[in-house]
Amino acid sequence: MKTFKFQSFVLVLIAFVLGFSEFLIVGILDDLSTQFNVPVATVGYLVTAFAIVYAISTPFITILIGRFNLFWDLMATMTVFTVGNILSFLAPNFFTLALSRVITAMVAGVSISLGLTFAGYIAPMSKRGWLLSWVFSGFSIASVVGVPLGTWISTRFGWRISFLTVIVVSTATMIMIFLSLPKDFKQRKSTVSGQLALLKNHKIQLGMLLPMFNLAAIYVFYTYLRPIITTQLHFSIPMLTILLSVFGISNIIGNRASGKLSEGPGMKRMPAVFIAQFLLMMLMPFAFNFSWPGAILLTLVIFTMPLLNSPIQLFFLQIAEREYPQSIVLASSLNSIFSNFGIALGSATGGVIVSTLSLNGVGPGGAVYAVVSLGLVLWLNYLTSKGLSTSSSNL
Fold first, then answer.
1. What is the model's pLDDT at position 39?
2. Residues 105, 88 contacting (CB under 8 angstroms)
3. Where are the alpha helices (DSSP H) in 264-361?
4. Angle CA(248)–CA(263)–CA(301) in degrees, nearest 5?
5. Where is the Major facilitator superfamily (MFS) profile domain positioned along the sequence (predicted)?
6. How many domains is the chain partitioned into structurally?
7. Rounded Cα–Cα distance for residues 240 and 223 (Å)
8. Nearest residue to 71 via CA among 16, 160, 141, 7
């Protein structure tokens, strides 16, 4: 049991350091804008670029390495991830910083996919939902501890030291991976076409779109969280750090609730979640006229962000284990891949709205994607209830 608990901690730590690196940009947008003399909206597109590279590279790399030893795959991707952050730390100009983010993004998705695959491998069936929700919580903990810490370090000591912190945590994580995770873990060998057979399943095809539009709805406003807090809601820089921590705590609570959902009603409860997202986002233009009501509304929307995670992850894994055992790693990667497509879509949409309208427009912009998510989950639940679960040829 002690071994399982330590292994679980290491898997959560992997998610934490990946989330710390990915989300750090949100907290230091203004500092990078000043350092490199580029508009805040341009720096915001680093979030978009990271997500696009993450989403496009992850399935290709995952399929290529899936035939090898998964432990050494994880060690290799974490090494490249660390090197990418070292390049960010040393970046002399904005182009080099952007290049470093591309390198980091190329392996971040593969690393968390492998981490989730290990979670499914080491956890007993009764603990799978629990461990998956905790691994996803690693990203939320990064919001609570990592992003506010990185923001505070950036304002006090400079943004480079924020990246140095990521490097130190990443190196420590690799040491613990080496000491704790099983070194003989492989999935069933298969050809590339054999692994891709998973994607012919129509419920998989439909399910992949859910995390994309869920995160697109959130990231229309989340990418610009710092200017929303300081410019729109008129909070001070010290309050910015506090509020980022509060939002992160809300996200952690949402992840824990996601684990409970996966053990209970699962996907059947998601329509209510997306309806709530839509209503809250439509209220943003009004709530943003008042500091504390605006902050409370943001806290509630951020709580809904991770509720889909564990139910959709178990949904993908159960289909893969039952019908496509050669595609377990690919199935583990789908949530993170399409979440990052959603981050790219949402942050790009937010950039257009902020540039052409104002920060007041990000709520209704996100609400449009929440409606799309609602339609998708209703359709998926209908297919599930009718037992239409094998391939697109069924329709």
1. 81
2. no
3. 270-287, 291-304, 309-323, 328-356
4. 30
5. 7-385
6. 1
7. 14
8. 7
Q: Across all residues in the chain, what is the average pLDDT? A: 85
Q: Tokens 């370090």 map to which residue? A: 153
Band of residue 391 on the pLDDT scale cut at 50, 70, 90 = very low
CA torsion 136-140-145-147 (nearest 10°) is 110
User: Which has the higher per-residue pLDDT, 386 or 295?
Assistant: 295
Supply the range of the domain harboring residue 137. 2-394
Tokens standing for residue 64: 């290529």
200-241: pLDDT as tens digits = 888 898 999 999 999 999 999 888 888 889 888 888 888 887
Q: Provide the residue count of the chain.
A: 395
Which tokens hold the place of 315?
């949904």
pLDDT digits (tens, 9 = 90+) for 170-206: 999 999 999 999 888 776 666 667 777 888 888 898 9
Helix 128-141, helix 94-122: angle, nearest 10: 160
d(CA 85, CA 97) in angstroms, rounded, equals: 9
Q: How far apart are the first and last CA of the chain?
A: 46
Tokens read off for 373: 């998510």
pTM for the predicted model, two decimal places: 0.77
Q: Find out whether 135 and 147 touch, Cβ atoms under 8 Å.
A: no
CATH of the domain at 255: 1.20.1250.20
